[in-house]
Specification:
Elements: H1 21-29, H2 33-45, H3 53-74, H4 80-94, H5 96-99, H6 101-104, H7 114-130, H8 136-154, H9 159-167
Helix pairs in contact: 1-2, 1-3, 2-3, 3-4
Length: about 180
């Protein structure tokens, strides 16, 4: 998604009123990928499982149109940037379902992958500082501990409290869903 956006518009504060259906249709009509993002966020905040069909159709059509224009405008360009732009436009056209998956299923598929990158970050920082994990067993223990703390944090449990409970032999275990 980073390739598609030169910048992200600031997110409205959560207390701001939800955009109306007309506002969303106007944004999508202007061809904004961020309009589909806003529609997905609005659907989630409103307790809906999907974006309204007319808004989704307009957004998909707008995205497809932008991809076709990109393919046409950058075809035959010989510069490295022109080739990259043409390849991006081709991927957008050929993999439209993958690029717009967040709009098809807003609850399960986030717009970006920031949460996944945050989960991996601590492992990368540790590798950078120490050079590498010394043993496979040590790496597994580190990953188990990070996974435990990440899960506890997602359930609203203080990570220090989770560690104290774990060390005292009373590990926090999430409720079965």
């Amino acid at each position: 998604m980073v390739d598609l956006l030169s910048y992200l518009e600031p997110r409205p504060h959560r207390s701001a009123p939800l955009p109306t259906r007309t506002d969303l249709q106007d944004q999508v009509g202007k061809g904004s990928l961020l309009a589909l993002k806003t529609a997905a966020e609005t659907a989630i905040l409103a307790g809906e499982d999907h974006i309204p069909a007319d808004i989704l159709a307009a957004g998909v059509a707008s995205f497809r149109h932008a991809a076709l224009i990109g393919v046409k405008d950058h075809a035959g360009q010989l510069t490295p940037i022109g080739k990259k732009l043409h390849a991006l436009a081709r991927r957008m056209r050929e993999r439209i379902d993958d690029y717009l998956r967040f709009a098809q299923d807003p609850r399960r598929c986030p717009f970006d992958n920031n949460a996944a990158e945050r989960e991996v970050r601590m492992v990368k920082v540790r590798q950078k500082i120490s050079g590498a994990m010394r043993t496979l067993t040590g790496a597994e223990h580190f990953c188990h501990l990070r996974s435990y703390l990440a899960t506890a944090g997602k359930h609203g449990i203080n990570q220090l409290d989770a560690l104290i409970q774990l060390a005292s032999g009373r590990p926090w275990i999430p409720a079965a869903s």
